[in-house]
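Session log. Operator J.P. requested a structure for one protein chain; no other inputs attached. Running the standard single-chain path with token output.
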Amino acid sequence: MNQLEHFFKNEDHRLIHKWNHYFEIYDRHLKHLKDGKINILEIGIAHGGSLQMWEYYFKGNVSIYAVDINPECKKLENENIKIFIGSQEDEAFLISLKKSIPVIDILIDDGGHTMKQQINTFKHLFDHVAENGIYICEDLHTSYWKHFGGGYKKKRSFIEYSKNFIDKIHAWHTPKVPVDDFTTSVHSLHYYDSILVIEKRKMTKPFDVKAGNASIVDFYEKELVSNSASQSK
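Structure written below.
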């Protein structure tokens, strides 16, 4: 049991509603940030239990910024938690939010989970995540639900939208996908049931390396040369 699960099951806190496998995912991707001072933005406050969970997990070394559409959530503010009231569907609000908060080390989108909300949030806030930061979008199963704007293979679902990220991190290898800011700032994509975790890191064009003494004829290299020669005739 990691510390997040311990807090959820054993500590006194406000209501937290999560899928049971999320705690392992959080711990896997966030534990390396526990010892330094960090900034978190969590979108979707509900009863505020997860805000308490992050304070507990990061041992007070965290400044938390949070967003919800419910004005009642404002009363959950304290000296470590700053709360903004607004909608993810409101692009002007997201632009204003970015100007009001510092660069974020961890962004957790646990808001309304509609396709427009998830895509808007990514478009406007991903570049506000630190160079070595983490972007988490939760409850991706709504991409398959029509009443959230989703549907299986629907082009405007967040699942389909995010599949383009796979091409973007491989842009170095094909002229059909331009190398852009996403390519040069994202180290890896981690898809789980209902969660996408994007780990950022400054990236440069990859190159292959070899070491050691060749001992046999490289069959695949030989085939590649042979095929290239045949195609050129």
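Operator note: The beta strands are 38-43, 62-68, 81-85, 104-109, 129-138, 186-192, 195-200.
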